Amino acid sequence: MSDLPRKAVTRTAKLAALPLGFAGRATWGLGKRIGGRSAELVAREVQQRTAEQLFKTLGELKGGAMKLGQALSVFESALPEEIAGPYRAALTKLQEAAPPLPAGTVHAVLAERIGEDWREYFLEFEDKPSAAASIGQVHRGVWHDGREVAVKVQYPGAGEALLSDLAQLSRFARLLGPLVPGMDIKPLIKEMRERVSEELDYELEAQSQREHAEEFADDPDVVIPGVVHQSDQVLVTEWMDGIPLADVIADGTPEQRDRAGQLLARFLFSGPARTGLLHADPHPGNFRLLPPVDAPGDADAPHEVDGPEASPDPDGSGGTEGFSRADSSEEGGAVGAAGDWRLGVLDFGTVDRLPGGLPWTIGESLRMTLEGDAAGVYGRLRDEGFVKESIDLEPDEVLDYLLPIIEPAQVEEFTFSRGWLRDQAARIADPRSPAHQLGRQLNLPPSYLLIHRVTLSTIGVLCQLGAAVRLRDELEAWLPGFVAEDEESEEAGEAKEAGAGSESEEPEPEPVPGGDA
Fold first, then answer.
1. Domain ABC1 atypical kinase-like spans what residues (predicted)?
2. Is residue 156 in some structural domain?
């Protein structure tokens, strides 16, 4: 496929063929078994063929089809290993690449959205995309002032295709259920549909990215590329090299895996606290592991754009002052000694706006669960609508349901793994288990939908990494309500007292020459 299929009938036909394909392969597999082949071998072949058709179709169609595929890709860790193997390669392909648009279509979009003289804005522009995603693809270029940039071009007809795909996919969402045990696919698709307008608005995306770039400008651990130029359907940002997180998952060293996992957890919790925004698309294609600031060849770290430089300026008359992301600082208590890998974050097209940071209820309920306060947790969950008024549950049973899920927060350092996530998924998905029966009676309030999905997705990536993470450190530093108010007051008082003490200590007077002894 070289272009985005735009006719609804074409896209619908391709998506509608998926359930038929699933059924056809099941029949094919039955025939093979009747022919004498083992059930295990046949099942593996059916799974392989299913994965190839499903994700080939989702990838080719881009739009909502590919977006769903990317969202599902982070949950492959929850699949049993004998099933995950055939799916994994097909799933992860969606995190970094997809069939590109032809150069002519890209040039037409640039001419329409930037102007017929769009080439004057660039010293270089690569027609071959460096990456393709659900609603747009990225081209590498050199801006007129010499900076390397990433040029994100939205597919023509992306909005129409996105809505059409998601409507069609929701009709057979149940058939996709086995891909992610314990997860209901239909609410995921519904939430995606509700955010279509935001996803397509590059002005909103540029604003969210600028806010993150400004807040994390001097951060030693997290790097956000600055916004260079934005117009309808075109977004130009600073180029960022680095190791794609998918490559770290596949071939990274233990040090890289642990560092990436720690910073991913830190960004999940610190982002809302520092910017009031939650980055809501945490699949591996949106993250890079960057070399330490003192590593050779790191001079090309992104630079922020200041003032007029964010606007198109072919004459070069705008300001060129900025600051280098490589000039990191230890201010604010951030952990980032020289020599540590850093996390680069891309794609701010979907964010959740949380002006006060993550809800206090999450931190408080998590703390109460760790403390074994069953009644307290149950009361908070009921107050927030997680337990409807018409439902009565035993607080101790709710606590038993939650404790295994929050195991990573119970210890100083937790090693995430596919095995651990599979156990959690199996516990919740098994209709015979108490966890499954209790889970079906819980409710997820709309205001928590995106937070819930982002948290689960991040955990999925941590399990893909197999990272050892000090999660509790990040919760204590960034999650409102996780540290009890009296503890916070005590710590603040001690700090204030220590500061006052140092100020009140006067140095001994120096002897005055010629004065009294």
1. 93-288
2. yes
pLDDT (tens digit per residue) in 445-490: 888 988 998 998 899 999 999 999 999 999 999 999 999 876 655 5
Task: Report yes or no: 112 and 153 within 8 Å, Cβ to Cβ.
Answer: no
Rounded Cα distance, 28 and 276, in Å: 52
Q: Please compute, for residue 15, the number of CA atoms within 13 A of its CA located in the half-sphere on the CB side.
A: 31
pTM: 0.72
Distant-in-sequence, close-in-space partners of 53: CB < 8 Å, separation ≥ 6: 18, 21
- Is residue 356 located within the same domain as residue 494? yes
Rounded CA gap, 311 and 394, in Å? 58
361 and 236 in a common domain: no
Say if CB 157 and CB 6 are below 8 A apart: yes
Number of domains making up the chain: 3
Domain membership of residue 464 as a residue range: 351-500
Residue 397 is encoded by which pair of tokens? 């049973």
In a domain, 375, yes or no: yes
The Cα 289–Cα 344 span in angstroms is 6
Query: Which residue ranges in the chain fall short of pLDDT 50?
Result: 1-9, 11, 15, 18-44, 46-47, 59, 61, 95-97, 182, 297, 299-338, 502-517
**Start-to-end C-alpha separation, the chain:** 95
**Judgement on whether residues 89 and 133 belong to the same structural domain of the protein:** no
What residues form DSSP beta bridges with 153?
Answer: 137, 234
Residue 397 lies in a domain: yes
Backbone angles phi, psi at 10, to 5 degrees: -70, -50
118 and 87 in a common domain: no
> 418 and 367 share a domain?
yes
Domain-located, residue 7: yes
